[in-house]
Amino acid sequence: xxxxxxxxxxLGRHRAGQYASAFFGTSLAATLTSMGVDTLFxxxxxxxxxxxxxALDALQNGFxxxxxxxxxxxxxxxxxxxxxxxLSKKYAEVITKDQxxxxxxxxx
Length: 108
What we know:
Helix content is 45%, strand content 19%. The protein has helices spanning 6-11, 28-34, 47-60, 77-90, 97-104, and strands at 39-45, 64-73, 93-95. It has a 3-stranded parallel sheet. The longest helix is centred in the middle third of the chain and has 14 residues, at 47-60.
């Protein structure tokens, strides 16, 4: 279920963490669950660090992680591509920004 207000409501409460995953040491999973969110778009820098850790934790917390490949980055293209490949085979759907935008058009 996609919700237009989730990003706006949560961004005001989110703080930068010292760990790779957006979930570790935060109430993010509980907050999203209480809001009825079940699917997440994951973007960021670096693909092999924060993006990967957050995608894995999203899955382990019962969310569907959608990693937006062209909204992620890495210092070097090789680990970026390797991690996108690995994530797509095991832990997440890897999509393009155009696919993400199209999915957002289906917002509840």
